[in-house]
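>> received
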Amino acid sequence: MELIPPNTNINFIGNRRYAYAFTTIMIILSLASIPIKGSVMLGIDFSGGVMIQVKFGKQADTEDVRQALKPLSENPVIQKFSMGGEEYLIRMETPEEGADKLAQHVQDLLEKKFGKGQVEIRSLEMVGPKVGKDLREAAIWATVVALALLLIYMVFRFTLSMGLGAVFCLIHDLIIIYGFFVWTGKEFNLTILAAMLTVIGYDINDTIVVCDRIRDNLKTMKKQSLIEILNTSINQTLSRTILTSGFTLLVVVSLLIFGTNVLQDFAWALLIGILFGTYSSIFVASPLILALDKYIPVKRG
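>> returned
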């Protein structure tokens, strides 16, 4: 099945300067989120603390919930977990009391405010600060090791310039996902880390398809310039790229529309990753291979 005619010849590389400008703007916007908004809001998986899911018998106001919990925590983070406002996620620092006592304490405080039988503690998760720190370090190392192994794989299978182009694409995509979560104030937890690692796998597969075609065309189009070879390779894989990304996005959009809060944040990470991963495999990887050709010449044949 081909959406794009086989003789399509869009001049992607010829418009690389626009891509450079757009890529630079997106990276700057993403990195600017850190000094402006602060670091990403870490979930209890990474920061340590307590997360409690509470369901009320009637609609409750966020400020009323915060006031009710004042004796327990000065500044709890309270998020709506349902559209109607009957269910909330409450995050607070780790108390000295155990999980069972804490759940009862929270229920007593909320029932005092909202009435007896109006509060149901649906779940309670507690993570110590040491465990959170260990998980945070493990997450960073997992990402670094994944990128390093992918670079080694790309160098052995293709060339150093293609490997560097592919890894830069992945770093570009991860920076934009991170910036999105900082700007929106969404929580970054193990689920989002899983989404980012999924994006790495998805995006590298997309880039490998393009690089594989470039390698084949380097053998058969020896008389053409590198720009022509790169353009031809991107156009030849364009139909596959659009079909794969399009159908994957249909699933992700379904998760955004019909999924729960947790699934929606996961879907947002995938949506940003797939959109920018598709963009970067076309407008970032190939132009970077061309730019690196001056220093690391691409071998032909």
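>> The chain has a mean pLDDT of 84.
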